[in-house]
């Protein structure tokens, strides 16, 4: 009677142990599988970030050569240089952002791969006599190693992108010097043109004022000449009238004298012509 309960208790203990082991194996398997999936997902994201960083570094490096070649033509084409400067800044920002993203994912993936490896190794040591988890453990270890490799590549790509971005920044800084000089020169040319236009405008205003003054002076001069001509005409008319009256008086007086002389019989007609001619010449001289 006493042996039966002991046997029952032993059987129950064995059953509970088997159930506990099975439950523990299920938990371990689920945890390892979950870690392997998370690690694989991070590995893919890390690879994408590394590829983006490499492409950004390649673009930045190529544009460094473009800027260095363009430095020779900056003074002749400042607008194009300014456009290249802006393009360089965009590529710098792109490369630095890609480098930061790749670096962060590389660190995160590396940490997850280490965690997955630790869990897989722990499960393998504890389950050496049980072959039920060997496949899951091997999958987790393989995923962790691939993730570590992706993390290393992404970290290298991030470093390359960061270094190339700095090279491009240096090239853009070199481009800034001649671009600023070209802008300053263009600004001086604009100021010079504005000053020339202002001088021309002032000269035109002075010319217009001078022309107006000359026109007014010319008008006043014409008016003065017209007034003087009118005065001279008036004087000439008066003089002619006066001279005409004097001429009539002189001629009449001469005629009277001639008549008197003829009546007296003391002078001849030839002698009378001489005083008359002299008198006529004198009158004409006064009129002129």
Summarize the entry for a quick read.
The chain is mainly alpha-helical and 288 residues long.
Folded structure, characterized:
It comes from Trypanosoma theileri. Residues 182-236 are annotated as: Disordered. Residues 92-150 form a coiled coil. Residues 182-199 have a biased composition (Basic and acidic residues). With 288 residues, the protein is mainly alpha-helical. It is built from four helices and no strands. The protein has a domain at 53-178. It is rod-shaped and about 175 Å long. The protein starts with a helix and ends with a helix. Residues 6-26, 238-242 and 260-267 have low confidence and may be disordered.
List keywords for this structure.
mainly alpha; 4 helices; rod-shaped; Surface protein TolT; coiled coil; signal
Query: What percent of the residues sit in helical stretches (DSSP H or I)?
Result: over 70%
The largest sheet, given as strand count, sense and whether it forms a barrel, is:
none
How far apart lie the N and C ends? 187 Å
Total number of strands: 0
Taken as a percent bin, the fraction of beta residues is: under 5%
Apparent shape: rod-shaped
In terms of structural class, how would the helical and strand content be classed? mainly alpha
Q: What sequence of helices (H) and strands (E) makes up the elements?
A: HHHH
| Rg computed from alpha carbons, rounded to a whole number of angstroms | 62 Å
User: Helical region count?
Assistant: 4
Average pLDDT score: 75
Q: Which stretches are low in confidence, meaning pLDDT under 50 for 5 or more residues running? A: 6-26, 238-242, 260-267
């Amino acid at each position: 009677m006493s042996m039966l309960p002991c046997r029952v208790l032993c059987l129950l203990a064995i059953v509970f142990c088997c159930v506990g082991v099975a439950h523990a194996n299920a938990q371990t398997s689920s945890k390892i599988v979950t870690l392997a999936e998370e690690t694989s997902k991070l590995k893919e994201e890390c690879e994408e970030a590394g590829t983006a960083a490499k492409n950004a570094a390649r673009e930045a490096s190529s544009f460094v050569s473009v800027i260095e070649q363009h430095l020779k033509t900056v003074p002749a084409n400042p607008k194009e240089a300014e456009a290249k400067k802006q393009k360089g800044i965009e590529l710098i920002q792109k490369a630095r952002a890609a480098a930061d993203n790749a670096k962060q994912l590389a660190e995160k993936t590396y940490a997850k791969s280490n965690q997955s490896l630790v869990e897989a190794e722990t499960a393998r040591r504890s389950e050496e006599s049980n072959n039920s988890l060997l496949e899951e453990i091997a999958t987790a270890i393989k995923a962790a190693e691939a993730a570590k490799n992706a993390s290393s590549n992404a970290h290298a790509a991030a470093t390359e992108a960061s270094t190339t971005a700095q090279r491009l920044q240096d090239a853009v800084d070199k481009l800034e010097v001649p671009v600023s000089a070209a802008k300053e020169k263009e600004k001086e040319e604009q100021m010079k043109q504005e000053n020339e236009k202002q001088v021309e405008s002032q000269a035109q205003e002075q010319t217009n004022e001078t022309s107006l003054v000359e026109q007014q002076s010319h008008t006043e001069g014409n008016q003065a000449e017209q007034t003087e001509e009118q005065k001279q005409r008036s004087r000439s008319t008066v003089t002619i009238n006066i001279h005409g009256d004097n001429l009539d008086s002189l001629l009449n007086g001469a005629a009277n004298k001639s008549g008197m002389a003829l009546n007296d019989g003391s002078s001849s007609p030839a002698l009378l012509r001489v005083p008359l001619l002299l008198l006529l010449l004198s009158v004409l001289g006064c009129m002129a």
